[in-house]
Design brief:
Distance between the termini: 30 Å
Radius of gyration: 25 Å
Number of helices: 1
Strand content: over 45%
Helix content: under 10%
Shape: elongated
Number of strands: 37
Structural class: mainly beta
Largest sheet: 5 strands, antiparallel
Length: 415
């Protein structure tokens, strides 16, 4: 006899189908008696389903099946995780059609997160914006959808306010557009800026906004959206941000290479440092600038002091990878870093944890998906249970909970 379970691991509160087989054929459940050790692990329903109980810790349970009126039995081990299914893997209520035409961004906000999804479709004209605010455990607080006509791709959060930037199509011309909304999802104002597409935006502690456009123009607005100044530059800022001291930094593309810039409040260059490509991702460790960029088919990370000194640099490509493409760089409290992206041009979603000394601690990847399935980790954020990964698989978006060690819970091995 053979005892067959529908899965080898289950989340607390979830179910497993049980079957007793003989020579490959299922025996009548009415003639089978099931038991579990320890008995506190769960109970059986209709002699065909095992329901795992909520436990104080993860355990290995043993399920035993006996056929009535016959000697012998069959057993099978079952891992029961302490965490609920809804806490380890959640489908996000936002549909995206293609990685190449969609932008997914997520940032910590208040006591939770805010994320945006913007689908461009065949052109900017078809673009629309979805904004979702969640609590610390990923539960949705609100979701808002805004008009078509703008392709939103930049996200900045500052205390009680959310700033979203994108490209608008108006009267046959392309403009930069910035939307300011409050913590309840109410729009405060929207800016429309002539001069072409927006590359990035940055917001300082006074809620003043800097808009960086593809034609090299930098425009500064006050907290009410009123223009303060506009300057044309002979370089294009691709990414930008402020450190804890309200100092402005940016990155530019310089042909096949790139540069990191420290800028004054008036947008003038204070110092510049070369890097091998423009910094597609930027974050801060206090006042230190950390940039991430794609170079030599791998993830490169470089840390600078506010004075422009290089504090460390490293390149990361896990063994067996042909390439790693960046989606996000997140600096954690204490200086450790999370690098999110795609393995071998989005064939698997990947998150790497780099410690503050620059050493690779662990790598998580989906690693169960056939090639060409359009899979990428957009973002990873630290939470009370470990790390929560926001990733795309085919046309679905998921939040996946990892442990402190960067491992996926056994009961959530769907990929």
């Amino acid at each position: 006899m053979e005892l067959k379970l529908s899965q080898s691991a289950v989340c607390a509160g979830s179910t497993v189908t049980v079957e007793l087989l003989r020579n490959g054929y299922k025996l009548d459940p009415k003639n089978v008696t099931y038991s579990v050790e320890p008995v506190s692990a769960g109970f059986f329903e209709n002699n065909s389903t095992f329901i795992a109980e909520l436990l104080d810790e993860s355990i290995e349970a043993v399920i035993t099946a006996k056929l009535r009126y016959e000697q012998g039995s069959a057993t099978e081990n079952l891992t029961i995780d302490v965490i609920r299914q809804r806490d380890v893997i959640t489908t996000v209520d936002y549909y995206t059609n293609s990685r190449s035409t969609s932008v997914i961004k997520q940032q910590a906000f208040q006591d939770g997160y805010v994320k945006i999804g913007s689908y461009e479709g065949n052109s900017i004209v078809n673009g629309e914006l979805v904004v979702i605010r969640q609590d610390a455990e990923g539960n949705k607080i609100w979701q808002k959808t805004w008009e078509r006509g703008t392709y939103w791709h930049s996200l900045e959060v500052k205390n009680d306010f959310i700033f979203i930037g994108g490209d608008a199509y108006l009267r046959g011309e392309i403009y930069a557009s910035i939307k300011n909304i409050d913590r309840e999802g109410n729009e405060i104002f929207q800016l429309t800026i002539p001069g072409g597409k927006l590359k990035d935006l940055a917001v300082n502690e006074n809620y003043e906004i800097l808009a960086f456009q593809e034609n090299g123009t930098i425009t500064k607005f006050d907290a009410n959206g009123q223009e303060l100044w506009k300057k044309a530059k002979d370089f294009v800022i691709m990414t930008a941000g402020f450190n804890k001291n309200n100092e402005l930094f940016g990155s530019i593309s310089d042909g096949a290479t790139g540069k990191v810039l420290h800028l004054s409040e008036e947008g003038e260059v204070i110092w510049e440092q070369p890097i091998s490509s423009y910094a597609s991702e930027m974050d801060f460790e206090g006042n230190n600038l950390v940039v991430g960029y794609y170079s030599n088919r791998r993830a490169s990370v470089k840390k600078f002091s506010p004075q422009g000194d290089v504090l460390f640099e490293g390149e990361y490509l896990p063994e067996g990878y042909e390439s790693f493409v960046f989606s996000d760089l997140k600096v954690l409290d204490g200086g450790d870093m999370l690098l999110s992206g795609g393995k071998n041009f989005y064939h698997d979603a990947v998150v790497m944890k780099i410690n503050k000394e620059g050493h690779l601690d662990w790598v998580w990847e989906t690693n169960r998906i056939s090639p060409n399935t359009n899979t990428v980790a957009f973002n990873a954020i630290k939470n009370s249970k470990g790390y929560r990964v926001f990733c795309l698989y085919k046309t679905s978006l998921f939040l996946i909970q990892l442990t402190e060690e960067g491992e996926q819970y056994a009961c959530a091995n769907r990929f």
